[in-house]
Write a structure and sequence with these properties.
Length: 273
């Protein structure tokens, strides 16, 4: 048995994995608006909720940049209160087990690799921020250790893809323009009768489409897989992104929503299999 932990800017999720399947899960908030102490308490509480004394290894997926060998976070934009915190040491001290750590989007890519026939593909995680994992020749591309931060490619007027198309960007636009805190999936439901919601979704999806075109032109992947909370926005959102992608894309790549459930947890488990 192993435990996979998926750390995000909004939530922490942990799962007890046996024979490649999650048999027990827990989810808690990341507490970025409260601070480091709350985060550490929820991280350990989440692991404790699924812990089994037979567990000998724990895999952790966490946004970067970070030194994933030592476990120390450097400056992940959506985990600002945790800059300089050593995630691996916190878990090791409590559970006295081997802990491996990698980028959360890389973990999602590893989970996809277990469930796809393609050997060259890119995974974009669309949530609080935008992360990316790249599989080339069936293997995870790491660069010097923090490769494929494609959420930070510049898209428009010095703003990056995360600034323009992440879940946070969409929610912030809704708050400013519609005076309501709405998720992408909630905005999509309002699109038929709400021009303001329709405009926010169109803008966000089109920015994503430009990012997808950049990825296709750089990597020429067999497929680009999208996952994360924005996945709930569904086919309407994706169709707008794909249409915009065509305007800038020299090399055609298939784009699909992921079908892997709990990819972050499963992928974190892959680190210690």
């Amino acid at each position: 048995m192993i435990i996979g932990v998926d750390i995000g800017g909004t939530s922490i999720r942990a799962g007890l994995i046996k024979n490649g399947k999650i048999i027990k899960k827990c989810k808690k908030v990341s507490c970025m608006d409260v601070g480091k102490k709350c985060f550490i308490g929820n991280l350990l509480g989440c692991i404790e909720a699924v812990y089994d004394k037979r567990v000998k290894t724990i895999g952790v997926g966490c946004p970067g940049p970070a030194n994933y060998q030592t476990g120390k976070l450097i400056n992940p934009p959506n985990l600002r209160p945790l800059w300089g915190v050593n995630i691996k040491n916190i878990i090791k001290r409590r559970y006295k087990v081997k802990v491996e750590m990698n980028n959360d989007a890389n973990c999602a890519a590893l989970a996809e690799a277990k469930n796809r026939k393609e050997k060259d593909f890119v995974v974009l995680t669309l949530g609080t921020g935008i992360g990316c994992g790249v599989i080339l020749g069936g293997k995870l591309y790491r660069g010097k250790g923090n490769a494929s931060e494609l959420g930070h490619m510049i898209i428009d007027k010095e703003k990056d893809l995360e600034d323009l198309a992440s879940g946070t960007a969409i929610t912030n636009k809704a708050k400013r323009r519609l005076r309501k805190k709405l998720l992408a999936s909630e905005l999509v439901k309002r699109c038929t009768n709400d021009a303001g919601a329709r405009r926010i979704i169109k803008e966000s999806a089109e920015y994503l489409g430009i990012g997808l075109a950049n990825i296709a032109n750089i990597f020429d992947p067999e497929v680009i897989v999208l996952t994360g909370g924005i996945k709930e926005a569904g086919s309407y959102y994706l169709s707008i992104a794909k249409e915009k992608m065509k305007e800038y894309c020299l090399l055609n790549s298939k784009v699909v929503w992921s079908k892997v459930k709990d990819a972050g947890i499963i992928g974190a488990g892959c680190l210690v299999e």
